[in-house]
Amino acid sequence: QVKNKAPAEVQITAEQLLREAKERELELLPPPPRQRITDVEELNDYKLRKRKTFEDNIRKNRTVTSNWIKYAQWEESLKEIQRARSIYERALDVDYRNVTLWLKYAEMEMKNRQVNHARNIWDRAITTLPRVNQFWYKYTYMEEMLGNVAGSRQVFERWMEWQPEEQAWHSYINFELRYKEVDRARSIYERYILFRALAVLVLVHPDVKNWIKYARFEEKHSYFAHARKVYERAVEFFGEEHMDEHLYVAFAKFEENQKEFERVRVIYKYALDRIPKQDAQNLFKNCTIFEKKFGDRRGIEDIIVSKRRFQYEEEVKANPHNYDAWFDYLRLVESDTDAETVREVYERAIGNVPPIREKRHWKRYIYLWINYALYEELEAKASKRTRQVYQACLELLPHKKFTFAKMWLLYAQFEIRQKNLPLARRALGTSIGKCPKNKLFKGYIELELQLREFDRCRKLYEKFLEFAPENCTSWIKFAELETILGDIDRARAIYELAIGQPRLDMPEVLWKSYIDFEIEQEEYERTRHLYRRLLQRTQHVKVWISLAQFELSAGQEERLPRCRQVYEEANKAMRSCEEKEERVMLLEAWRSFEDEFGTDATKERIDKLMPEKIKKRRKLQAEDGSDAGWEEYYDYIFPEDTANQPNLKLLAMAKLWKKQQQESEAAAMDPDKDIDESQT
């Protein structure tokens, strides 16, 4: 038992062990001593011992092929050919499927120039194991080396009956070509492509490359008509179900070499129209190269368009609701295709209706219909089909949920271009009845205005304002129409109705338009009355400033006192305003007025009314109520407010006292400064 299991101080690695064994040459065995045989008895004794050793090895394990081969090769080295044959025959009785035994047996016979014996062995080998190609290759090669061409051909024929692999047929063909037997080679190619048995066509190698090799064989030997016929047979044989781009590329290149450029174009076009695009990338590439070499600009563009069309087809097939891909595809198709093809693509595109009835999903889709209608009208010049497209689109839209005013207006404009005004009015009337929208009313009114149908415009405006009474723009446009027509009372009545509405989207714009209307009519009293009515609703600083500017521009003798009076009223009204910036804006406008038109007294007065700008701090709070620090801001102190608030006076006095205290402290810190000042 090992008591101390600790590692030794000196460790020996496996590398050191191997290096030491190499240095000492422990694994090298000394060569056996050389034996010299001097007489026949000694030789026979050596042969007996050696044969006994081989026989013992074979007896121990009969299936080890190397024992048989070593035994036979030893007998062969002693020129005991008959004994070697016997050994090989015994080995074949044990394992006749062993390829190595047959090869070594036949090589021994060929090495010793026993040709008939070798033929016999090869014949037995190919009969026993006909699927071992090595036997056939060596057999035919031996016959050819012996100059027995007929015998070699006979072996090839026997081999071909077994329908071997592709290389075997090529070996047979090359064999015939070595002896200039082109007709025989052609017949082998025919059998290689199609094997006839019992009047039934049985496919042996229906691969495209074999047909191509056959055609190139004919082309190589200058049988161009035969080569073309082979290609044509191949195209007919595979038909449209098993089309392969490699066959058509090879066919086209053959015709290109023969300078038959029109045939090449026909081949490429036929293939591109029938082969699935994902399997025709190489075909596209070669067709493009051909057109660049021998075609014109038109041919090159056709190829590029065809390739892009395939890409778009893949995109829309992957996602039929990808309307951007449909737009690109249609733009490509419209550029260079007949009308029927374009219509077919448009029909496919508009057939992909959005599955969800929400307007945001339909916004891109509706432009497919618009483009379709414009194509029929402008490109195809088919007004009847255009009308059908518009009507089909309008029937498809779910007007109870949403609609597209653009489609109704485009349809109406189309009917006007066709000089069919009743249909246009009927379409717009239907749209307003089914799904009234501001845009539809505006488009219909604009149409009637262009036609100078003012009574219809009035009726439309009335319906529009019934539908959307809060729309200030509609009220303004209606009043402007009446103003243009010279009916001032109607325009004023419209404005009065408008400002009397309980809810408006832009009331300030409406009031401004009404005031501008009265100013244009030079009704200054009405304008002042309007301003006063507006001030009853709002005390906004801009209204006061606008009123003052109106009084200033009214052009009357009392314009300056009136303007100053407006500023006075505004200042009094703005004292209670929380927004001090608006009050400052008013005072600055008043000061600008006084600077231009006022006297020294009025200027001095407005200067006294101007506020003092001071900096203050206030505490901030976060959304959760916690302390968020302090911020600085500017505030305005108005003199009028100071007189009414004694606390502000106290604050000012405290501020002055603090300033005096700071000055006295500064003087105490620097006494030399006081001495210097007294001496000076």
UniProtKB/TrEMBL annotation:
Compartment annotation: Nucleus speckle
SUPFAM superfamilies in UniProt: TPR-like
Keyword Disulfide bond applies: no
Keywords, ordered alphabetically: mRNA processing, mRNA splicing, Nucleus, Phosphoprotein, Repeat, Spliceosome
Pre-mRNA-splicing factor Syf1/CRNKL1-like C-terminal HAT-repeats domain: residues covered: 64-355, 381-538
One CC-aspect GO term: U2-type catalytic step 2 spliceosome
A biological process from GO: spliceosomal complex assembly
Pfam families: HAT_Syf1_CNRKL1_C (PF23231)
Main localization category: nucleus
Region feature (Disordered): 661-680
UniProt entry tagged with the keyword 4Fe-4S: no
Function according to Swiss-Prot or TrEMBL: Involved in pre-mRNA splicing process. As a component of the minor spliceosome, involved in the splicing of U12-type introns in pre-mRNAs.
Assigned protein family: Belongs to the crooked-neck family.
UniProt protein name: Crooked neck-like protein 1
Gene: Crnkl1
